[in-house]
């Protein structure tokens, strides 16, 4: 059965002290739940986060990594450096990486390959921009993103993939896709996986929704049959909000 996941993408927020404090607060408020809780602090705080969560039921993820094994890539981080410190989950293809760092589906495909080679689990983000939705082109856009970024994978690789559908127009804007809009496209995404890899793979894949998930809309979003959790930005930075969002599954 596929897993429910609530993941906090902390982006470029939180010093080490603040990282430790927030993780401790999550432990203190975390309900007894089968939902997997993931936190993704910035690179410099990953080691510390791994140290304090180790084996205690919160997963630590990186927000990005480079596709090369190593080399002259100033400022970048390789997969082996993440796994070496105990980070085995990585977020790839976030819309901010696509928009500000020009990451394309082709580049992301090679990052995915590298991560899988290192036996990492990938939270693969994608989603349409506002103009695509206004032109009623969002179904095609997500199909192309899946095709170009992930559909070169073999069936077995999908055991290590989590999808995160994040409409760009809903990220950090306070605009949320309605639960019906989100469900409609999540069902479409699952049907694309089923058509390419079979129903069994499609049924097993967790598909998260991201984009202005808040305590007051989480429960309704998570209650949709094809939504298996959330990738949370702003509301993951405040314990009151994040813990209420986790409770959205209870
Ligand atoms: P938001 O961000 O929850 O602040 O909209 C979501 C994300 O960027 O993953």
Q: Biggest sheet: strands, sense, closure?
A: 8 strands, parallel, barrel
Rg from C-alpha positions? 17 Å
Chemical compounds bound to the protein: 2-phosphoglycolic acid
Helix/strand/pairing category: alpha/beta
Strand-residue proportion: 15-25%
Number of helices: 11
β-strand number: 8
Distance between the termini: 17 Å
Strand order, biggest sheet? 1-2-3-4-5-6-7-8
Strand and helix order: EHEHEHEHHEHHEHHEHEH
Q: Helix proportion of residues, in percent?
A: 40-55%
| Low-confidence runs of at least 5 consecutive residues | none
Shape: globular
Oligomer: single chain
Mean pLDDT across all amino acids: 96
What report would you give on this structure?
This protein has about 250 residues and is of the alpha/beta class. It is built from 11 helices and 8 strands. The chain has an 8-stranded parallel β-barrel with strand order 1-2-3-4-5-6-7-8, surrounded by 6 helices. About 40% of the residues are buried.
Summarize the structure.
Helix content is 42%, strand content 15%. The protein is an alpha/beta fold. It binds 2-phosphoglycolic acid.
Keywords:
250 residues, alpha/beta, 42% helix, globular, binds 2-phosphoglycolic acid
Question: Secondary structure elements and their pairing?
Answer:
Layout: E1 5-9, H1 16-29, E2 36-40, H2 46-53, E3 58-62, H3 79-84, E4 89-92, H4 95-100, H5 105-117, E5 121-126, H6 130-134, H7 138-149, E6 161-165, H8 179-197, H9 199-204, E7 207-210, H10 215-222, E8 229-232, H11 239-247
Parallel strand pairs: 1-2, 1-8, 2-3, 3-4, 4-5, 5-6, 6-7, 7-8
Helix pairs in contact: 1-2, 5-7, 7-8, 8-10, 10-11
The site of 2-phosphoglycolic acid has 13 residues, from β8.
């Amino acid at each position: 059965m596929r897993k429910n996941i609530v993941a906090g993408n902390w982006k470029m927020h939180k010093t080490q002290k603040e990282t430790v404090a927030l993780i401790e607060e999550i432990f203190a408020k975390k309900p007894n739940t089968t939902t997997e809780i993931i936190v993704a602090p910035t690179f410099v705080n990953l080691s510390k986060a791994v140290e304090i969560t180790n084996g205690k039921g919160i997963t630590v993820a990186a927000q990005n990594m480079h596709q090369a094994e190593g080399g002259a890539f100033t400022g970048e981080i390789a997969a082996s450096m993440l796994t070496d410190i105990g980070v085995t989950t990585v977020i790839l293809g976030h819309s901010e990486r696509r928009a500000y760092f020009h990451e394309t589906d082709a580049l992301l495909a090679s990052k995915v390959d590298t991560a899988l080679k290192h036996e990492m689990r990938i939270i693969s983000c994608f989603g349409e921009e506002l103009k695509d939705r206004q032109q009623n082109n969002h179904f095609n856009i997500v199909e192309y993103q899946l095709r170009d970024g992930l559909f070169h994978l073999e069936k077995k690789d999908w055991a290590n993939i989590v999808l995160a559908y994040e409409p760009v127009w809903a990220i950090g804007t306070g605009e949320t896709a309605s639960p019906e809009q989100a469900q409609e496209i999540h069902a479409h995404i699952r049907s694309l996986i089923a058509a390419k890899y079979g129903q069994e793979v499609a049924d097993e894949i967790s598909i998260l929704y991201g984009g202005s998930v808040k305590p007051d809309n989480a429960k309704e979003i998570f209650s949709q049959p094809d939504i298996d959790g959330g990738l949370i930005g702003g509301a993951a930075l405040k314990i009151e909000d994040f813990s209420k969002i986790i409770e959205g599954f209870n």
